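dude i think i finally got it to work??
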Amino acid sequence: MDFEFTARTADLAARLETFMAEHVLPAEAVYDAQVAANANPHEQPQVMRDLQRVAREQGLWNLFMTHGDRGAGLTNLEYAPLAEIVGRSIIGNEAINCSAPDTGNMEILAMYGTEQQQKEWLDPLLACEIRSAFAMTEPAVASSDARNITSTIRRDGDHYVINGRKWYTSGILDPDCRLIIFMGKSDPEAPTYRQQSMILVPADADGVEVVRDLPMFGYHDRLGHGEVTFTDVRVPAENILGEEGGGFAIAQGRLGPGRMHYAMRAIGMAERALQLMCQRAASREAFGGPLAEQGVVREWIGRSRMEIDQIRLHTFKAAWLMDTRGNAAARTEAAAIKVAAMEVAHKVVDRAVQTWGAAGVSDDTVLARLYALTRALQVADGPTEVHLRSIALQELKKYDAPKEARA
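look at this
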């Protein structure tokens, strides 16, 4: 096994480290202040537009895109360490146009979109001229099981008519949001995993209503997590993404790389938390000496270092499998890293909060926000239990005896 980065990844990593240190991290407080000062708290602040301009100038743009010739052309394994670097800051991914939900939406547009759909939606997203949202989760059902989805997509001549209620539709409150990718049932009588479709819905279409902005543990995201109703929304039939009945397959194709992105960002969050923990332990005195001399704090630091390194290697393996054998072959690993990375990140952040004491639960550091985010992401993109169920089923298949031997 060769653990060296490719020459291109090493170069981009060095440039990203500089970009983060010189531009992104110093801009965090400015970003929060400008968001608070805006009449619309969901409007992109000027400092982010400035960061994105610098990122473009430095060639640090759309690094996530592995499909076609529109992105940087990196493999999943090449992009993984870069996702970790920008993941250290909550605003890092947005600065280089590699933030959710746009990344997943852009990937499926690149994979399944028609030439016209790509021209109308993908190209403006890649240029960050518009933003997008993904509407799958529903408040009334456990929609981590796609079979439960109740929203409907019904063909009516040259149009589809859409009805449903979604929530945690991330990105919907950004004034620049122009596109919603909507998942619903197009044929309830079809085979189980051919009932769902995805369709492209303009955010300003008649019948689309944002009911409220939903917080995560009290934090309101700049992009917004909306509860949205769709009432007799009509869109042209050519807005169907891929083919009718292909929604579940598209969702699975979207989630593999997306989970790798989430995992590497979580590792970046954990590294930031570990750094803050060490800095606090070295500078804060209690009971006659620095916290760093306390055995329990040293254990937290040691365990955090090991756990972060372990999940990083696991994530690299998943990325390598996606590159060499395809997303389907990496299904178990992609599920595993989503579980393990979030659990490790949350655990490390929790230790850092404890090390910082009262300051750790305030907004004086980024730790409280990281704590909320790493906990919420154990529910988002499929809860931990669903991924564990999938992993267990794959593992049990290895021991599945022939039916005739079960008597």
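The radius of gyration is 22 Å.
im so relieved honestly
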